[in-house]
């Protein structure tokens, strides 16, 4: 599986491009702020044709470029509980006044938002099949109400054989290397995050390669052994 990633221009959000191989259709995950030019270069270099955009949640640093990336042809997939965030992700009701003010200062008051033309709502345990790739939707609220992870039964090409991974988990802002997503923004919940870590994260196989929304890749086995937020869960 061809898996490419690069950071957005703000907040270090990881944007992922996933395909069966060069010259194939691909899935774009979490197109954040200022990724359009780099995304075009990646698609051109590998002769990829976008088939859909998947959003792990509705925070602006993960969805800022979704509308231009989708154009009028591609669907954006988001969990039902975060669908409302596509209406006004730049507003203080979505981000909180502090982060909303930071964005306004960085990009100016002329920043505008338009929803993608086609939005597909997904739910827990649903399998989304796009570009020939099956992705399991795992609802894991806590960072936002509709935060999800996407699980795949393949691993990126080039992963060393001694990495002992045989599947991939795109965790968005649910789980990072050594940490988890914050729960103090509007729609966040510490209690919901604890439940998600216990119910949706910890039971997954240790052999899962974790591709998070920010920071480096890791493995679920490593996180269970070292991540303080996963200690004591069963």
TrEMBL record:
<dbReference type="GO" id="GO:0016787">
    <property type="term" value="F:hydrolase activity"/>
</dbReference>
<dbReference type="GO" id="GO:0046872">
    <property type="term" value="F:metal ion binding"/>
</dbReference>
<protein>
    <submittedName>
        <fullName>MBL fold metallo-hydrolase</fullName>
    </submittedName>
</protein>
<feature type="domain" description="Metallo-beta-lactamase">
    <location>
        <begin position="12"/>
        <end position="214"/>
    </location>
</feature>
<dbReference type="InterPro" id="IPR001279">
    <property type="entry name" value="Metallo-B-lactamas"/>
</dbReference>
<keyword id="KW-0862">Zinc</keyword>
<keyword id="KW-0479">Metal-binding</keyword>
<keyword id="KW-0378">Hydrolase</keyword>
<dbReference type="Pfam" id="PF00753">
    <property type="entry name" value="Lactamase_B"/>
</dbReference>
<dbReference type="InterPro" id="IPR036866">
    <property type="entry name" value="RibonucZ/Hydroxyglut_hydro"/>
</dbReference>
<dbReference type="InterPro" id="IPR051453">
    <property type="entry name" value="MBL_Glyoxalase_II"/>
</dbReference>
<feature type="region of interest" description="Disordered">
    <location>
        <begin position="207"/>
        <end position="234"/>
    </location>
</feature>
């Amino acid at each position: 599986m061809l898996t490419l990633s690069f950071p957005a221009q703000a907040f270090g959000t990881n944007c992922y491009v996933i395909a069966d191989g060069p010259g194939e259709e691909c899935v774009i995950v979490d197109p954040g702020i200022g990724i359009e030019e780099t995304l075009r270069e990646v698609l051109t270099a590998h002769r990829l044709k976008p088939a859909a955009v998947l959003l792990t949640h509705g925070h602006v640093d993960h969805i800022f470029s979704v509308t231009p990336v989708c154009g009028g042809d591609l669907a954006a997939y988001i969990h039902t509980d975060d669908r409302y965030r596509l209406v006004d992700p730049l507003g203080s009701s979505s981000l909180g006044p502090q982060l909303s003010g930071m964005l306004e200062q960085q990009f100016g008051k002329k920043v505008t938002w338009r929803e993608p033309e086609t939005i597909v709502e997904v739910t827990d345990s649903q399998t989304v099949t796009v570009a020939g790739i099956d992705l399991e939707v795992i609802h894991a609220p806590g960072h936002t109400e509709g935060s999800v992870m996407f699980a795949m039964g393949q691993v990126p090409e080039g992963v060393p054989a001694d990495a002992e991974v045989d599947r991939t988990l795109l965790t968005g802002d649910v789980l990072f290397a050594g940490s988890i997503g914050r729960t103090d923004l509007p729609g966040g919940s510490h209690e919901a995050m604890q439940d998600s870590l216990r119910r949706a994260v910890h039971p997954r196989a240790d052999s899962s390669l974790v591709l998070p929304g920010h920071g480096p890749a890791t493995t679920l086995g490593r996180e269970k052994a070292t991540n303080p937020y996963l200690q004591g869960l069963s």
